[in-house]
Amino acid sequence: MHQLSLTTVLLLLLGFYGISFLLTLRIGRKDESADGYMTSNGSIGFGMSAASMTATWVWAASIYAAASSGFQYGLSGALHYGFWGALMIMFVYPFGRRFREVAPHAHTLAEIMHARHGRCSQMILALSNVLGSVISLMVNFTAAGALVSMLSPLSFLQGVLIVALGVLSYTLWSGFRASVLTDFVQLVAMILAAVIIIPFMFYTLGGAELFVTGWHRLDAEQADFFSKKAILEQGAPYFVAVLAYAIGNQTIAQRLFAVREDLIKPTFITATLGYGAIVIGLGILGFLALLAGIVPLGGDLNNLVPQMAATYLPLALICLFFILIIGSLSSTADSDLAALASIVMTDLYGKNLARGKPDPRRMVWIGRLTMLVATALGVGFSYLRLDILSMLVFVGALWGAIVFPVIVSLYWDRVNNSAFTWSVLAAFAVFLSVRFAWLPLTGGTAYALELVACVGAGVVIGLMAFGLLGRRVGMVCGLLAALAVLPWAWGEMRDYPVLLSSLLAYGVSAIVCTAISLRNAQRFDFALIGQRVTNFQAA
């Protein structure tokens, strides 16, 4: 395997982060404000917002996990990851328009829940967002360490520290605005690298002949485009997770609140197409590795993509690949830092600790302190070197518990704080109990859980149809989906605990939220949300 020299790696990192830092100098201190630091005052145009959304979600995990999926599940693996991930972006905009309609000046989804239900619901959503963003930081720093240690003389921890400090250097001062500005340049670099590297790798491994010489290495499931194993272990759990990522992830919500309201739809459709094309293409690398008989170094799938680059690419393309991965993980890491800053600034300080009198100048410094703490946590947790694909599915499923209560709270005026809180807590408890095998999946318990999981499947399909086609179509599609899944799920879904627990998060939250809401006779006036959620004063 080829390795870059220490000097080359340091020059690449210094050049990349140096250029990113110089770009952020365009954001003058005279423009500093709490609202600008969090959402750029909701005034970002189409090009920058679409590029930022695409770059944020074409992250190192997308590349590594898509390749891992292609390697593990064969022909359909990369498609499952890239297609459902792209679909996640697509389904943001129908609900996003509703969020902006009821709260034009919102900074976080938890802030909207504070206006809708109160502090308890707000903190549940805020804490789940914090957990997800810290895990996302950990995943990105883990990918950075794996890349640097594989392609250079530097160690895993040294790579993590350099990248963490590099991202922090250009994000700390200007927050979200710096993230959006650098995303555009990083996306251009990633597209250029992908367009060159993927075809080169394909022809280096043997081109079309590879499908003839390597097909025998695939088992029956890996060779089947409609593989049941790939669908149930990868496709279906990730499909279930996509809507949760759309609602539970503050990095998406932040861009939703930052783009001009009239540009939400074209922005998210463009990002959908861009993400899908790039990630499916990069995921094919894992399938090519499977055909070529490549064995991940140390049995760690996180090493697969860097290992292929170090083995089959010439020095110049290794440098380009290095920039591709660094750009992808940096564009998401800076988004996570900006998201965490906005949550602490708005939901912890602005709506609670400030007691109705937030100081915008202090808010900005609280955001910067949050970024420092979050970076330290991300670096610390990255040393655990957890499997990236497993972490993504876990976080997405965990967020599934909040999706139904959040969405329904902004459409149904009978949902109250008790319905939101108890539905989320019950869904969390059941999800964790099944995911970590605390409940026995046998006998009547298993059948009951499978029945609720079918309801969860109906909720997922129903919400997606509702977002695009309206309430009636959504309810019909949800009912048909639940009935269609039932014959297979009854007695079999217990064998797929990842999928079962993911669907249970949706099913339990929907059942509990609906049951409590139906007992509530009071009606909520949605106009109150816009009155309660306002911009903070400029610093």
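^ that was protein a. below is b, sequence first then the tokens
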Amino acid sequence: MVTKSNRAGEPRPPARKRLWTGLSVGAVVLLALGVVGAFLLGRGRADQSPQASPQASPKAGGHGWFPHGVVPEPGPPDRDREAVIAALRALDACALLDLDYAKSHRNPNAVTIPTGPHSCSLVADANWSPGYSRLSLAVGADNDFEGRFSEKPIALGGAKAYEIDQGDDSLPDCVLDLPVSYTLSIELKTDASAGCQLVEDYGAATVAKLADPDARGVDTAKRPLSAWDGCAFLTSLYGPDLDGYRLTPNSRSSDPFSGCESSNERGKTGPSLKVTYDKWAPKRTDQLIRIAGKDAAVRGGAGTCTVSWHQGGSSSPNEWFGSVIFELADADCVTAERHAAEAVELAERAPEGSASRPQRPLLYGPDDNDTGRIGACADLFNSPCAPYQGGVTVAPTFEAAAADSQADQAVQCEAFSEAVKSAYGSSFSPVIWGTHCMFVEPTHDMLVYVDIDGKNVPADYGTDPSLWADRQVKPIDGKQSVTFWDTRRSEYDVYYSPYGDISRPGNLHIHLAADHPRGVRGTSTATLEPARAELAERVITLVDRKYFR
């Protein structure tokens, strides 16, 4: 959900993506930064006060967003990308689906149908057509930390996997990812009514098959374009014109690894490629032409032009996947058509052999680090992040502690750690991001953000009725405080005056933000349980009593 605004100077997290669905374009769900902590769950709003709070605006200088002594340690490096790509390119997607199990336990007529050079579907029979359910597997799906953050981690057959139920009773949609690097996975998904149980059953079988990847090799002579991956193809096609562009599998395709998308560090989109097995069916509005002897269709848009063409037969046994279809998009039609003609010729050649040995083992163990994040930072959407290691002393007066927390944000973590765990459970762990201390937990259904702020006036917060609701000025443990909800009842704040005077600068602050738990697609705003909100007052009380009275 996009926020109404974001504070100047706040780093903005990347978009949280939704995985592709069937052959359609996946929807993208953006996370944007908002006020005090809620930005980490994509639930933030505009400033709570008329004056931007220094605790919500990381100070300049120091190590990135870390202004003082805390320097995040780099996580372990990712696997060698070329080795991972070499391993994926050699796999037969259909060989990773357990057809024997399907025939013996579910449907004796079941078949596997290649749906692209690196994708396959398990269907009820060879006459499958759109509208009937299927189980699909794609080798080399784009699945990075952003995607895994919203997926539920599970152990499957001794390997790490991630799962998310994106459907509902009327439209099942379950996705399971088996990570093979920090950014790539082998992905199973289904629209069958059995949903996540089905992908788990077949996912476990896929894990077992990948214990010996060499036995699951693809016959490139029988699977057109399977010798290539999409980004190798696009690189060969464009050469140095792609220097400075980041290349990723095409997330808008049912066979992402056979396609490729490009973008540079400024966010400019470059050429993109899709290669799938499909029916050749140009749209009525397309301009039909011939390119290098192939039937082609051209459609232009604002700043982009897409050329698609029928490269030839796919050898798939099903008519709906009987043709190799290319789609190349570029900034203008002249450039797109020129490169399309070159691509027709390139597709008939084999790629250069990889100098890298295939990644072994290919899958991660249940406890392996597959994101590069350290410790509890795996449960914080933003980066860079540092887990709080303990050992910090909290000064015995509020004024000294507030001054110390401006110099060392770990002071906030130490002061609140015992109280937060007492109220919400030991699964909450403190982490540091910028000048902030947050408490995160593995299900991601609630974020806790805390402050020891010596400068801002509690009375200034929560005054805009278009953003905040149920604002109260009330005593908490005998001290005047301000509490309020956001209008969606997903966030709750307490600004507690250690002096008992909300017009005086200085406050202890706790912010709670609810989100849907991992593994479930949220179709509406998550709501925060009132009982959890009430516990925030207990947290504040415990901190004040322990350190400042």
